[in-house]
Predict the structure of RNA methyltransferase.
Amino acid sequence: MKEIISSSSNPQYKLAFKISQTKRERTKQGLALLDGVHLVRAWLDAGREIETVLFTEAGAEKSEIEHLLQQIQAKTLCISEALFSTLSELPSATGLLAIVKIPTPPAAKVDGFCLLLDGVQDPGNVGAILRTAFAAGVQQVWLSAQCADIWSPKVLRAGMGAQVVLPCIENADLVSLAQSFKGQVVASLLDEAASDLYQTDLRGDIAFVMGSEGQGVSPEMAAMAKTKVLIPMQAGIESLNVGHASAIALYEVMRQNR
Amino acid sequence: MKEIISSSSNPQYKLAFKISQTKRERTKQGLALLDGVHLVRAWLDAGREIETVLFTEAGAEKSEIEHLLQQIQAKTLCISEALFSTLSELPSATGLLAIVKIPTPPAAKVDGFCLLLDGVQDPGNVGAILRTAFAAGVQQVWLSAQCADIWSPKVLRAGMGAQVVLPCIENADLVSLAQSFKGQVVASLLDEAASDLYQTDLRGDIAFVMGSEGQGVSPEMAAMAKTKVLIPMQAGIESLNVGHASAIALYEVMRQNR
């Protein structure tokens, strides 16, 4: 019979709690917390290692978690439902959490299909954008320091693990990365002078810039972008949700490059 | 000096509170609550009338609200900040709320560009989809009874007033509406047997079906759709956020019909 930890002074629990709470702690420790079978499986499928697994007794009785626990080479810790609920944002407990090392960011690509997020702050938007970007064939994502932390529980949940398979560079200096990029830098702007997305040649190496929810693309990045595009919209609407706009733009790039 | 209502037993306040809370009350009263200048202005711009305006003293000092209050032919009620905060979900008080009659649903279109939402439950998704649908030229939206209530505060906020300009039929019998539709009924499915979105002819009258977050399009509606399309995705990703998928699909319909 395995011991069930119910004390909030347990060091592994304390560590998990800290990294679930703030970006500062995640950065300091270099660790993130994955919640649920889907994310943990995506992590293992990507060939990555897990530091510590935390699960509940009820969780371990689910066959998919039992099966995963047998595969994982890591410290495992059975914790009480009460402790588990303080670590999870999900309304119904998944029963499984994993502490993992945040991957080292890749070297910046200078060609191919890159996405630049310029101050996208809403965690749900950032997560869903990563998921769509991966689906559309984006090879690398650069995020400015103002963007939501991609290793936060909310972004991990909305991204459904896209973070795990899609190389991302956080706190990126978008201007200097764009300067080094050998292909076309394109920014999506709410500007009548920009060219219609569907009448713009988006073939070949491309770095696509999407701006923040309220402000759009920053003036510095707008200046960097040789090509400015506008998603056509019916009169009477001011703008689209940034996630939806990203989906439309990235899929148009994909369509033109097939 | 205008009286400031601070009692929660004020009948107008009580009505506003009830309709802010549940769909049942909104349906019973036939009323919805608009929060903030943007939504109220969109409502007036559409030529619609307001039943009652509730504002705070601080709100009335903002020039755009002061200006709006002068235009509005309706009962106005100055309420305390404390009461206002119980009526608004927004973190910082907008200072302006309007009670309005929910519009009578239009007669169902049998041609043109229609969107069918089959069980989309997340309020943020439904709101953002309405906004994108309007931008893409959708002329009418049909929502099954399982969808989020489009007159709820969350959907109104995410839709940024698209509800006001885009005719919607809630609690719709999608199967019978689709049966009466004279054009192509197309459903987006996660099915390898479906045809590639970009290799499907989407020109002409079209009723496009998007399914729920977890389950996708219902079997009944999948059976109704003569054309089934799949949004192409990079291997390794299971699905897209339903809002992003809607944006991609509706804009592809728009692109082909330009």
Summary: The CA atoms of residues 145 and 171 of chain B lie 4 Å apart. The domain at 4-101 of chain B is CATH 3.30.1330.30 (60s Ribosomal Protein L30; Chain: A;).
